[in-house]
Structures are given as C-alpha cells and as structure tokens.
Amino acid sequence: MRRTLSVLMGLAFLVVDAFPLHAHSDGVFTIHEVSEKVAPKASLELQKDPTGGFNVHVVTSNFVWRPEQASKKHVAGEGHAHVYLDGRKIMRIYSEWFHLNTYQFSTRAGEQLLSIEFVGNDHAPYTIQGNPIGSEQIINVPRDEIQPDATNRDGATTLGIVSVTILLIGALFWRRFRAQKKRRVERLA
C-alpha cells in the first residue's frame, strides 16, 4: 500500500511539474522600478520572412544588451528581453534581432499579440509605476504556418493523458489489492 501511495505521489509531482505557472516576471518577486526619463525604450519592426515566420528588429534606447550577464547580478540599464506570443513566454532574446518561428510557437492562426519585456540580468522586469517596460505589436499568423497539432499544445491533451494514466495505474493497484485480500480470505477459510 505504501508503494502504491509513493507511485501515485510521484505521478502527481510529474503532473504539477508538467504545467508550470506562466507569469511575465518568471516568478521573480523583485522588479526594477525606473523613471520614465531613464527607462529603456523599444519599438518593434517586423519583416515577413519568405520561408515563414517573422524577422523582428527591436529598436532600443537607454538599454544595453548583456547576454553574457544573463542570470547574474542586476546592473541598471543592462539586461535582455523576454518574448511573449499571446501572453505566453516563448523565448529570451539577447540582442536587437531575432526570428519569430511561427511554426514552432504559434498555437493558432490569425491575429496574435507579440510583445517583448525588458528584464535585468537577474530576469526581474524593468517597470514604470509597476507596469512592465517593452513593446508590442499585433501579427497575423497564416494558417499554413502552424503545426497541424498546434491546437493540442495548450496542455489539455497532456493533462488528459496524465489523468487517464493515473486512473489506470490506480485501477491496477486496486485490482491487485483486491486479489491479495481475496487470497487471504481464502487461506483463512
């Protein structure tokens, strides 16, 4: 019985780990509050890539890209950016150019919000009066630039599979427990 409980607890931890919480601060509890005068500024210039997706230029001022300092101590005015597509973090960027691979990151066709958020070396967001600093733009993702199974990437399918697996394992353990109990009763009779 203890073994069964251990297995079920292990599966529960796998389920919890498979569905991380998404927040623009990546769970960081600090922010880098700055004044509007010294705040990083950005605008996005997008070019449709002929092979799919978009080439994105993040035009910045008051900001120094410091990829070699990622995950290290905060230095004012330095850092990198986090990229979000429809509110879901998809990547970090360490310079002013990146390729948005819609085949890889889009979960649906149509208009979607692409946004970048400036963060310090320590991943804490730069803010003005508590509002994240960055830039955003609506993009239109063609239907032929998403993976056929993209609609299943929202976690519902994975959650269903994990739930069914847990139920099946539980049923197998229950069946084994009942068979052992029946054998004990038969031996006593």
Description:
Helix content is 29%, strand content 32%. The protein has 189 residues and is α+β, with helices and mostly antiparallel strands. It folds into 2 domains: 2-9 and 155-188; 22-149, Sandwich (Immunoglobulin-like), CATH 2.60.40.10. Strands 4, 5, 6, 8 and 11 form a 5-stranded mixed beta sheet that branches. It is elongated, with a radius of gyration of 24 Å. The chain starts with a helix and ends with a helix.
Give the CATH architecture of the largest domain: Sandwich
The tally of beta strands, per DSSP, is 11
Proportion of helical residues: 25-40%
How far from one another are the termini?
24 Å
The CATH superfamily of the largest domain is known as Immunoglobulins
Largest sheet: 5 strands, mixed
Number of domains: 2
Number of helices: 3
Q: If you consult CATH, what is the topology of the largest domain?
A: Immunoglobulin-like
Determine the strand fraction and express it as a percent band: 25-35%
Q: Average the pLDDT over all residues and give the rounded result.
A: 83
Low-confidence parts lasting 5 or more residues at pLDDT below 50?
15-27
The coarse overall form would be: elongated
Structural class: alpha+beta
Order of helices and strands: HEEEEEEEHEEEEH
In the CATH scheme, the class of the largest domain would be Mainly Beta
Q: What Rg is obtained from the alpha carbons, in whole angstroms?
A: 24 Å
Brief overview:
This protein is of the alpha+beta class and 189 residues long.
Architecture blueprint of SSEs:
Elements: H1 2-18, E1 32-33, E2 41-48, E3 54-61, E4 64-65, E5 78-85, E6 88-93, E7 97-100, H2 102-105, E8 110-119, E9 126-128, E10 131-132, E11 134-141, H3 156-188
Parallel strand pairs: 1-9, 4-5
Antiparallel strand pairs: 2-3, 3-7, 5-6, 5-8, 8-11, 9-10
Helix pairs in contact: 1-3
